[in-house]
Amino acid sequence: MNNLDTTNPNNYAYVTKHLEIHILGGIKTNKLESLRVTVSVQKLKTQNIVRHSIDLYNDTQVEKFVRRLAERLAIGTSVVRKTLQELTHELENYRFLLLKNEEQANKPFYKQLNATELRAAEAFLTKGKLLPRTNEYIGRSGVIGEETNRLLMYLIFTSRKTNNPLHCISLGSSGVGKTHLQSKVAELIPEEDKIEITVLSANAFYYFTRTELQHRLILIEDLDGAESVLYPLRELQSKKRITKTVVHKDSKGTTKTIHLTVEGPVSVAGCTTQESIYEDNSNRSFLLYIDESEEQDTRIMHYQRAVSAGQVNEEEEYLAAELLRNIQRVLKPIRVINPYAMHLELPQSVFKPRRTNAHYLQFINAITFYKQYQREKKYHKETGEEYIETTIEDIEEANELITEVLLRKSDTITGACRNYLESLKHYLQENNQTTYTSTEIRKRLRVKETTLRRYHKQLLEEGYIKKTKGKKGQLYHYEIIDIDEYKNLKEQISNSLQKAVSQIKV
Asked: Angle CA(67)–CA(68)–CA(72) in degrees, nearest 5?
C-alpha cells in the first residue's frame, strides 16, 4: 500500500515500486472542481526528472502526461496511468482532511460551563440587587469610574441576545478613554458573541454567511475608520437584515444575478469625537458621554500607578470578568412583555421622540431580560409562547440609569459644547462673576482658540449666551442668559419619569 507523505507541507512525497513523485507547493483547498498540482516525477534509481503543472481532474491533460512520462522515463503507460490514478485518490482524500481541519479551526469557540461555573452564574443572577452587584463586579474587573456609563454599556451589550438589541456610541475628546471603556466592557462579553472591527471595506458586511452576525455584538474602534460600512450597519440596526444584488459567473461562464443576504439582529457599539457627523447613526443609538472631569483623571492615574507598582490583584480582575462572561452565557432568549408600557410617556422636551421612545422601552426590556432568573415564566394562552413580565422595579432602575441619556437627547447643543458650558458655569459661580471674555476663559479653562470660537458660535446661535459690550477699548464680554437651564431641564425629565411610575403604582 503506497502512502502519501505530507510531512513537508510544501513537498508531498509519493513513492511506488517504479516511480517517485513529489507534489511541489502542496495543494489548494479553495477550488474543489479541480485538482491542479505541480509534480516532479522520476523513475527510481535514475536522475531523469520530469516536472509539470497539471489538473489531475482533466482527463485530456492526464492522458498526454501519461504518454510523455512513459516516453521520457522509458516505462509502461499502464504503470504510469495506474500510479497517477492512485495519487489522485490519495490527494483527494487528503484535501478533504485539510478542509475538515480548516472547518474545525474556523469554527467559533463556544465554552461549555462546568457545574461549578454554571451554579455560580445562576446564583449571581438569582440574588437581589442584581444591577448594583453587576456594576460592582464591572468595577472589580478593572473598569475605573464611569459607574453609570459602564452599567449602561453592559446592559446594551446584553441586549444583543434579544430580538430588539440596543446600540451605543461613546463620545468625548481625543484621549479621554472612549475606546478603552468600550474595550474593557466588551471583555465581559464572550468572545464567540462579538466581532471587533478596525477597518472594513464597503462590501465586507455582505460577505458574511447569512446567519453569521445574528445576535452578535459589533464593536467599532473608531467610526472615522469605518465610514464605508456605516450605511449597511444602519440598515442592520433598523431593518435587521441587509441584501446586496451582484452579478456572478458560474462554472460554465453563464452570467447570473444573485442576492447576498445577511441576517441580524445585531448590537453595534462605536467611538468617535465627532458627534454631529454621525447623526444618522447616533439617532439609532444611546449616546454615552465619557467623564472628562478632574476626579475621573485622578482615579485613572491612581489606577495606572497601582498597576505599575504591582498593587493590582490581576487574578481578582480576571475572576470577576470571567464570572460576568459566564453570566452572559447562561442568559437564554425569552420574550419580555411590559404590562405598564401604555403608562410610560417621555417628556415633551426630548428630540425625535418616536425613536427615543422605542429606545426607552427596549432598555426597560433589556433590564427585565437580564433579570430573567428572578422572573416567573408565563405562557401565552393562545400560542403557548414562554415569556416574562417587566416589574415596576425594572422601570425605576431604567429611569435612574437613562435620565442622563434622555437629558442629552433633549439638549439643543452638542455634548462637547454642553460640557464646556457646564464648566463655564462652574467657573463663573466659583469666581462670583456674571460676565467673561474669551481670553480669560481660554487661559483659565485651557481651551484652544479655534475650539472656543466654535463653542461660542453654537451657544450664541442657540441663545445660551449673549454678547455685552465692554468699556471703550476693551474686548467683548459674554454673559450666560439662564444659568439654571440645564438643571431645570434635568428636573423636568426626572419629574416626568417619576410621574409615570407614580401613576402605575396608584
From this structure: 120
Topology of the domain covering 115-333: Rossmann fold (3.40.50)
Among 296-310, 330-344, 351-365, the minimum mean pLDDT is found in 351-365
Phi, psi of 69, rounded to the nearest 5 degrees: -65, -45
Quote the pTM value. 0.77
* C-beta separation of 393 from 354 below 8 A: no
Predicted confidence band of residue 278 (pLDDT cuts 50, 70, 90): low
Burial class (CB in 10 A: 0-12, 13-18, 19+), 33: exposed
Cell 517504479, residue located: 18
Per-residue CA distances from 397 to 129, 130, 344, 409 (Å)? 10, 11, 14, 19
Burial 440-459 (b: 16+ CB within 10 A, else e): bbeeeeebeeeebebbbebb
| Between 308 and 205, the higher pLDDT residue | 308
User: Nearest to residue 121, comparing CAs of 132, 134, 110, 109?
Assistant: 134
Considering all CA atoms of the chain, what is the largest pairwise distance in Å, rounded to the nearest integer?
A: 111
Under the banding of pLDDT at 50, 70 and 90, the label for residue 45 is confident
- Alpha carbons within 13 A on the beta-carbon side of 79: 13
* Residue owning grid cell 492526464: 62
Domains of the chain, by residue range, sit at 4-106, 115-333, 415-487
> CB of 65 within 8 A of CB of 84?
yes
Fold (topology level) of 415-487: Arc Repressor Mutant, subunit A (1.10.10)
Q: Spell out a b/e string for 246-283, using b for 16 or more CB atoms within 10 Å of the CB, else e.
A: eeeeeeeeeeeeeebebbbbbbbbbbbbebeebeebbb
Please, are residues 95 and 35 in contact by the beta-carbon 8 Å criterion? yes
364 contacts 497 by C-beta, under 8 angstroms:
no
pLDDT at 295 over 90: no
> What mean pLDDT is predicted for residues 199-205?
72
Under the banding of pLDDT at 50, 70 and 90, the label for residue 146 is: confident
